[in-house]
Amino acid sequence: MIKLLLADDHHIVRSALAALLSLEPDLTVVAEVDRGDEVLAAARTARPDVAVLDVDMPGMDGLAAAAALREELPGVATLILTGHGKPGHLRRALAANVRGFLLKTAPPDELAAGIRKVAAGERVLDPKLALTAWDLADNPLTPRETDVLRLAAEGAEAPEIAERLHLSAGTVRNYLTAVVTKLNARNRTDAARIAQEAGWL
């Protein structure tokens, strides 16, 4: 019997998942949570074989929860189940050693099969997401441009960024101009959005 932990902040979705998966003869749901920051505590108590995690949850997102699980309970395999497969999410999932990444639009039998594969130590990736990952360009930003854009994304203005990174305000503005150009963005806010979605920030 494969023991499952389900984490999704939408009660209806989580309940439907639990009901569907419980119909499978070899799967049993041993814990359910609606917040990412509750995943680790629930896993410590329930000792699931597989944690099925949504990405967007309050407290902590599913990818951060997956990384925390890997750190403390490496025997728990993780499968991300998300409504949108953003490239940045996929990059973070791979970095967190997530074994599965499926869209919520996957048929129930595909999800059950994915859980079994993940429990057996295999990797599962939605084919559409695999194509997205394959098509992703490498990060065109230098480490310094990334530092500048990260601070700008947090709302810092050029003088503050300059002070924090020990640069001149003019140099910071030059970096931001280069970033906007490289990412073909409308402005620095748009550049930050593009970089975050691609997993570069």
TrEMBL record:
Sites of 4-aspartylphosphate modification: 54
Gene3D superfamilies the record matches: 3.40.50.2300
Domain of life: Bacteria
InterPro entries linked: CheY-like_superfamily, Sig_transdc_resp-reg_C-effctor, Sig_transdc_resp-reg_receiver, Tscrpt_reg_LuxR_C, WalR-like
Residues of the HTH luxR-type domain: 137-199
Keyword Methyltransferase: no
PROSITE patterns named in the record: HTH_LUXR_1, HTH_LUXR_2, RESPONSE_REGULATORY
Assigned keywords, A-Z: DNA-binding, Phosphoprotein
Any matching Pfam family: Response_reg
Domain Response regulatory: 3-119
Cited PANTHER family: TRANSCRIPTIONAL REGULATORY PROTEIN DESR, TWO-COMPONENT RESPONSE REGULATOR
Protein name stated in the entry: Response regulator transcription factor
Species per Swiss-Prot/TrEMBL record: Actinomadura violacea
